TrEMBL record:
Membrane-spanning ranges: 38-59, 71-88, 94-116, 128-151, 157-177, 202-225, 237-256, 268-285, 291-312, 324-349, 355-377
Pfam families reported in the protein's UniProt record: MFS_1 (PF07690)
The protein's name: CynX/NimT family MFS transporter
Lineage, uppermost ranks: Bacteria, Bacillati, Actinomycetota, Actinomycetes, Streptosporangiales
Keywords: Membrane, Transmembrane, Transmembrane helix
Annotated source species: Actinomadura yumaensis
SUPFAM superfamilies attached to this UniProt entry: MFS general substrate transporter
Amino acid sequence: MTIGLVFAICLVAANLRTGLTGVGTLLPAIERDSGLSSSWGGLLSTLPLLTFAATSPLVARASHRFGSARLLVAALGALAVGTVVRSLPSVVCLFAGTVILSAAIAFGNVLLPALIRRSVPAHRIHGVSALYVTVMGVTAAVSSGISAPLAHTLPGSWHTALAWGVAFTVAAFLFWLPRIRGDRPQASSGATHSPVPWRSRVAWQVSVFMGLQSLAFYTAVAWLPSILIHHGTSSTAAGWMLFYYQLIALAASGLLPLLTRGRLDQRWTAAGASVLMAGGFAVLLSAPALSVLACTLLGLGGGVCLVLALTFQSERAAGPGEAAALAGMAQSVGYLVAAAGPLLLGILHDSANGWALPLVVLVVLSIAMAGAGYGAGRDRQVSHPAR
């Protein structure tokens, strides 16, 4: 493993959320200028998660046929195209570009654990995964923060602001392009394709853990300010609490490798982090005035769970092919569950006329995540779909 490889992985990570997180802050301007209703605006926000779920299972077979590095370079090219298309002054281009760039990001999401499994020593997978999660989180937060100011200062308003992240995409594309020379597709060497391990208990535990932590994160991002405002917090303070939650999650994801160095058995770490998230939701339910404590617990648990969910996709696979297949399954299931989360919580809120029932559901799901995390955290590998 070289510093150049780690930098290349971080460049890809910088592209996996940047094009998505700025949309929320720009959505009011997009709806106003494009004439979109709130329903269509909601679809625009959910479309990436649905695209992730639909695209992720296709990546392993494509990687086997064309090679991981080659496919990643193609995905980065498609990401650049999709980003530009999305910024064009057309509602059709807005949605079409979103689908293209989301599909490209889905390929990157699945390919990165496989590339890490192939190129990084086993004892360093955890650290490299935490590093790329940190880079992904930092660039996502920066995108959320600067998109609106860019829309006010750059010509083209929100159209231009939607496209600023293409600079990261071009840099990653140019950095990975020379690496395709030594990338030999597994199909050309006669290696068999690793099927998606739908019949593996460990694979399902990894997938359910991925899905529930994604649901908790996207639900918190979507509804945490509304929950706090409902209990009397100002909109400005609620926004800062959301920022604080993400900041704590970033700190937790960065510190995790220092606390678990050299340990492949992560059962109690995954279960404990899930319980922390359950505690955070429980505090919001029972003592909403303690929002700082709630967001601290949610951030600590969420940051650890995200790193573990991505690490398991590399560590629980016997090789790069199996890692791509496992990552495809975990992210397909995960993002499908995540896409349903904010919608389900909104429906529960409307039907119960309050946040008590949705928060009870989140506490229960976090406890279920602890069970899935305990199973996924065992030092075992998915090497055959029948295992």
